[in-house]
Amino acid sequence: MKRKQGFWTKIGVRIPLVLWSLAVLYPILWMILGAFKSNAEIYSNPWGLPDTFSFGNFFDAWSNYNIDISVFNSLIVTGVGALLTLVMAIPTAYALERLRFRGNRLLFTLYISAMMIPMVLGWIPLFFLLMQLNLLDNIFGLAIVYAVSQLPFSIFVLTSFMATIPKSLEEAAAIDGMSPYKILWKIITPLSMTGIITVTIMNMIQFWNEYFMALIFLQSENNYTLALAIDYISNETQYTNSWGTLFASLVIAIVPVIILYAIFQRRIVKGMTEGAIKG
Amino acid sequence: MVQSKKQRYLFMAFCLVPTFLMFAIFTLYPLVNGLYYSLFQWSGSSSAAEFIGLENYRKLFNDDIIPATIWHDYFLVITKIIGIMILSTFFAVALTQMRIKEAPFYRIVFFFPNIMSVVVIGILWMFIYNPSLGLVNSGLEFLGLEGWTRSWLGSERWALPSLVLPSVWAGIGLFMLMLMGGISNISKSYYEAAEIDGANGWQQFWKITLPLVWPQMKISILYIIITTLNGSFIIVQVMTKGGPNNATHVMGSYLYEEAFVKYNFGYGATIGVMILVLSLITVLIMQYFMRREKVEY
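YS: structure for the whole thing
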């Protein structure tokens, strides 16, 4: 737009933008500050700065509420899940993008439409399936379920990345006598690294944050992921009122996400908007 | 390619079969089996599964809570669409067309809640709504509106509307960015031509921006519908567990309670079938209503 915008228009537009920024930042900031306050201070001065920064709440959450175990469990589930997703998604994405075979389109559509189907219905049979496979209440069982649940999204993003790799590279390698396995491993995988990293970050955030499947498929406290442990503390807080401990555990949960976002902000944004536009 | 047919098939099988098997076992089989479970009365122990045909469906139609859960789900769908679309359209237009220097800052901040865990968002907002300490009531008192303060999540009337704000808060960023992508693809020449014809900013918005960004809006609306019908129960579970007195139960949280708290697995599966059918019908109907000839200038 060429027209000069008036001074007042610019101010008027900024008011909602600034207000919404405050609405987003203030609760998060305040949660982080709350984690450093004593309980008495949270009651006397819930929305201000703490008098002294104390790490007592973190120690309490870490040792008395088993946050240490659940952080470890969440790391395992996130890592194993993300790796497993790649192992399953990369070869399939390559085959769907490059190999010609009957049913190619159909298979692709099947995977993609699974992104739109509500999985709640499947969770009841899945519960009993995991029980039969001895994977119920098992963080590796949960990692498998997570990995399969992110397959459609991962395949979708990876195929679109692989489509941009020139075919001539593979053809040249095949003429040199390279086996297709090697082509996939030595040429396609390194060249689609951008896509692989995007998908992996998205999946890791997803797995780190996931709550409901963990709630259904994990039962004993020793297997709780971070999301379940926090929910447990939150339910306790209604009786104990130890808000400081709760905030400390929320901060522990959110810090890795903030770090990933700080480093990979562009990729995350791109991955999510593209994932949503698949419809 | 110099490879025998057999090798080619072997490679193809290597690529496709293991993944598809995992997908079939952990996604397709449970979905299909869910339909089958809905015909049984079953409390979990394998001996007690009893085939009861469509009895669960009859129960579903006579269950007083079911219509309420459906209404709650669609209440969330509608309010989220209105809230998110108005705000994210406004922000998207402001950030793309107003030449705001600090636009990247707003983009980064607004998007952040999209990658926060629903558990964290839910707990954060439970505290914001906390009757004695929370920001909402303190804010109202500060403004001198003591009469408006209440126990937001504890009130049957206000608990469900109170869930809308956290969902909008968490959702704005993604949809704003999708719309910004659409707006930045609109050729500048349309606006220049409109400028010459003397159209003001408001007219340009209605006549150029809105029609040309319609595909992105349509996708956003469908995406809100799908994610709400398939996921609203998560924030409900975290913040209210369906209470008080079922006032916030949505279909998914009711399924969870029936299946995994009361161990009525057959009936739970029936609710799951209802969720599947309703979300498919809703998406199809919305796609029909929102089809609109592509605008080309």
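YS: worth flagging: Chain B has a mean pLDDT of 88.
IM: good catch. Also The two ends of chain B are 47 Å apart (CA to CA).
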